[in-house]
Amino acid sequence: MNDASSKIAQLDREGRAREWIRTLSELPARFAGTTAEREAANRVADWMRGLGATDVSVSPTPGAPRAGYGQALHAGLGALGCWIGGPLGVMLAALSLWSFRREFRQRRPLLASLLSSSPSVNVVGRMGGDQPARRVVLSAHIDAAQAGWMFSREFADRFARFAAGVRRGGPPPGPLAIPEALLAAATVVAAAAWLGAHGPLFGLIRLAAVFALLVVFALTLQWSASEATPGANDNASAVAAMLLCAERLKERLPADTELWLVGTGAEEVGCVGIDDFTERHADWPRERTYFVNFECVGGGSLHFIRSEGLLKKVYFPSEMVDLSRRVAAGGGFGEVTPTDLLANTDGHVPAERGYPVLSLISLEPNGVPRNYHRREDTVDGIDTATVVRAADFGAAVAAAALRGEGKAITEGQVVSC
Q1: How large is the average pLDDT for residues 71-84?
Q2: I need a surface site. Which of 99, 155, 230, 257 has the fewest CB within 10 A?
């Protein structure tokens, strides 16, 4: 293909990506469990069929309450326990801390499970032979986030500076380490009050702990009550990249390999859709199944994720991380570098189960995706060239994995390009 044809093809792919992103971002309030989320799934299903996917389905998957409500519940209960003290206060604060850790470290909700939620949906399509020996799974979530004061540019920049300062001493903790520490402090203070601690200094410490938890309560409650973002970058850009990646991969798909496209629901409330999908296919062999996940790839510097977590850190298996580093070093996709993400993407779910996973994200200089959880997250802010670059990088890494290059790297072998 000559330069003129390449430019035309590039512009065509960018144009289709922009149209897909525009279509999804104009769906109002596609929260997990809403009719708008289902409509988004139906549209993505049509696009999958247009690319040649078969067995396309929109299937129900469990939902979860809005993340802010659960965090507000824990903070409010912890503040109450700290304030009243005594055996009841210790019980309330300790229960809040225990439930918080169960939910965000073990992914086993306790108190949050008492909140109401609606079922979500996954949209799944497939390409390839009927008896495959290997498979590649492409994923991107279809639900949108909510805006909130805590995601303003000022808050994002402040947290970026805080994380940069902590990073000098090692990998920084995720943002939920702050409310976890406050809940632990509330439990200690409530216990101290029960044991008879008193005095002006103790009163100030107690007041400070209660006040800090009430700030968390107010911010997360306001977040839960906020309107939806248009979700152009988070995560329509990733859906477009997934579709473009599938289009590129199907041209080079070996006969013994199948390609799955998974538009997941309920990612913004705990990665529920991808968890349901991987659970349904728990029998897929780890050594012959490769995941490529896309998240917020609509502008900024492109990265492959090495580790991620809001609280508990999940480190991605080395096979795809090392292979991504090798493909990036080839220079054919611009600068693509590793990152340790202070958030969760769908990629950490199969990674925890031991699957080789590539999860791609684009970040602004402050380490936050463009227009993250803000009302300005519209199609006008999307850099479609980055979307296409993410799609092609994902396809190149998946193709290299299918050739066995990733396994050769982990085993210390030399593989020619």
Answers
A1: 98
A2: 155
